[in-house]
Amino acid sequence: MHISEGILQGPTIAVGFAVAAVGAALTMRKMDLEEIPKISVITALFFVASLIKVPIGVASIHLILNGVAGIVLGKRAFVAIMIGIIFQAIIFGHGGLSVIGVNTAMMGTGALVAYAVWQLRHRFSFAKKEVVFAFIAAAMATITSGSILALALISTGEAFLTNASIIFTMHIPIMIIEGLVASAIVGFLLKTKPEVLAGYKRPDTK
Amino acid sequence: MISRVNRLFVFGLLFLFASIAQAHKLNIFTYAESGKIFVESYFSDGIIPKDARVTVRDGNKNELLSGIVNAEGSYTFDAPKAEKIIIMVDAGLGHVVSATLEGGEMTSVSADPSSAVTAGDAGIPAVAGLEAQIRKAVAEANKPLAREISQLKNKVYTSDIIGGLGFIFGFLGLYAFLKARKEGGK
After folding, report:
1. Mutation site, B1, B2, B168, interface A, largest A CB count within 10 A
2. Where are the beta strands (DSSP E) in A46-125?
3. Does the interface ipTM go beyond 0.90?
4. CA torsion angle A58 A183 A129 A123 (round to 10)
5. What is the CATH number of the domain that holds B107?
6. A10-196: what fold?
7. For chain A, what are the domain ranges?
8. Deepest in the core among A108, B26, B54, B133, taking most CB within 10 A?
9. Chain A CB contacts of B173 below 8 Å
10. Half-sphere exposure of A35 (CA within 13 A, CB side)
11. How many Cβ pairs within 8 Å bridge chains A and B?
């Protein structure tokens, strides 16, 4: 999912940093002290998620978990992802320092979309809706990030156009896997600690 | 805020996967032989990129040639006349790696064996041929070694992961501490 260094040109990198800076500033407003432990746990999870490889046929992909970050942290996921990406770049060499902005914009926006989709669950009522919405939210996060990746690659010129078109087909298995992982995590959290999920509303007393 | 069971769940996940962790990074290995340049590419986990595109540019970024790697992830082309060439392998989805070859590196093994004969060799033709063969054999023997070295370089060690997690918790902990102090001072 990470864009490597040396592919993108100056303007795209600048836009990436601008989006990341504005996104972080907006989503960090009025942060509560008590939110920080939760953010650090999700940041840590996101940080190692890229090392978790899922084999698909001959190729293998790695988890992103930006959808899960959005589901658990809400808009604070953006900051968690930014910190995670910075450390992934420094320690694992994923992407690179100059593309931290672009990668944050890409995966952070996916997380915000996941949060928006996740919140829609309040408008519905059916059994296991949380698990269903977790799946949709994580899948939407993946495809949003994939689209931004495609856009970023298209900005580099025609050579990447074919590349960008295969991104969508490549992302279908990732969407499903991310969705399943998010559903499993949400299912687990619902049973054990539902209030850690973003936008949690105490169920009406029966 | 976060129950013990959740903490166990998260850390269980982390440690379960730490052992199989390895970065998915594209590597490039290039060498010259008999006027040809050989490019090999592979992901750090040993997977060979499919249909990766190889683009060769000269020092002024002009494209000289391009092509697709074969099933073994390698690509061969005649050494161009340029002083310096930049070989870029693009395996798609942002997996791109490049290598730069300059003058001497492109002709490490001479195309014409007789040119390898120096005056001191007393003009024994067999020596020239032998030298070229030795160079070829050494290059061949070094290939798995170079592959292994780059694999090791890109390997993610458990200590890296633990260190990264420590940085994250430490950084956010420091932030929380400063924030708490600021709010407490009000």
Report:
1. B168
2. 53-56, 59-62
3. no
4. -90
5. 2.60.40.10
6. Arp2/3 complex 21 kDa subunit ARPC3 (1.10.1760)
7. 10-196
8. A108
9. 36, 40
10. 17
11. 130
